[in-house]
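Support request from a user on the community tier.

User writes: "When I paste my structure tokens into the form, the page sometimes reloads and wipes my input. The last time it worked, I copied everything first. Here is what I submitted, just in case something in the input itself triggers the reload:"
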């Protein structure tokens, strides 16, 4: 009997077409898909073949759905565990893979698109503008799931980098209070709900107005809190340019057109030291 590894697949933020090609192929070949139904839209199951089993694990505990994964794997079936976003971020896969290892069940992980990147795409922004911020922090506030003291929200917010706060919308008052002390009450912020899904909603606001916005719009779940100076339209319009495409900036594949010291044109012939064929 052929033994197939259990596949942990990142479903992306919701849009069925934002799953990776590799993830889509895994679903098309699966005999059984166990999906986190509280977060993963059923539309993702459209990629499965007729006869594939679908199990919603929303009401199940760890031992229940892991035992199903092991049982079906050992019977020769191709098993997919479908997670929202990317499995490596708040995916709780470590506890699942630990159980699989105990039973000598092989597994592979196929990455997905996380909500922070789906939200940035929807807003048409870049989290890392030159000379504004070059860092993106993905975090959550401490709640029912504790956060190490060294990673408390206020400590991380002190960097004033771009920040995406997951799993914290129910504690928006506390989040806003902390962010206001660090970023300032007028710092641009956004709340992205159900990113890439049909009912997607994205609201632009300021840090101090976050609680009022969340309450007014009755936002309770599947929402990401984003705070960053890059959300300022004036900065976006200022067109902060990177050096990557600057004609005076040399790199491995392009010589500068203008010598930065002598201020005269130089050879711009492309080099190709790695031997790749140019199109």
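"...and here is what came back when it finally went through:"
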């Amino acid at each position: 009997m052929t033994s197939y590894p259990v596949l942990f697949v990142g479903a992306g933020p919701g849009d069925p077409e934002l799953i990776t090609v590799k993830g889509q192929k895994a679903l098309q070949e699966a005999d059984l898909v166990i999906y986190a139904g509280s977060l993963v839209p059923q539309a993702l199951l459209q990629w499965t073949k007729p006869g594939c089993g679908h199990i919603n694990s929303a009401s199940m505990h760890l031992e229940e759905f892991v035992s199903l994964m092991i049982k079906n794997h050992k019977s020769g079936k191709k098993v997919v565990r479908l997670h929202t976003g990317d499995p490596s971020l708040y995916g709780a896969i470590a506890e699942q893979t630990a159980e699989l290892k105990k039973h000598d069940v092989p597994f592979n992980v196929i990455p997905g698109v996380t909500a922070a990147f789906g939200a940035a795409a929807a807003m048409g922004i870049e989290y890392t503008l030159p000379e504004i911020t070059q860092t993106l922090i993905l975090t959550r506030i401490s709640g029912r799931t504790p956060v190490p003291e060294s990673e408390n929200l206020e400590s991380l917010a002190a960097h004033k980098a771009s920040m995406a706060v997951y799993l914290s919308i129910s504690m928006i008052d506390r989040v806003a209070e902390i962010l206001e002390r660090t970023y300032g009450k007028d710092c641009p912020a956004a709340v992205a709900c159900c990113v890439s899904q049909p009912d997607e909603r994205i609201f632009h606001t300021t840090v101090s107005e976050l609680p009022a916005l969340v309450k007014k719009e009755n936002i309770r779940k599947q929402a990401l809190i984003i705070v960053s100076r890059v959300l300022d339209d004036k900065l976006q319009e200022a067109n902060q340019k990177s050096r990557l495409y600057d004609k005076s900036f040399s790199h491995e594949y392009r010589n500068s057109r203008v010598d930065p010291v002598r201020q005269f044109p130089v050879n711009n012939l492309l080099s190709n030291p790695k031997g790749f064929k140019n199109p």
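Agent notes: The reload is a front-end session timeout and is unrelated to the input. The chain has a mean pLDDT of 89. The beta strands are 6-10, 32-35, 53-56, 79-83, 107-110, 136-140, 162-166, 188-193, 201-206, 223-227. Escalated to web team.
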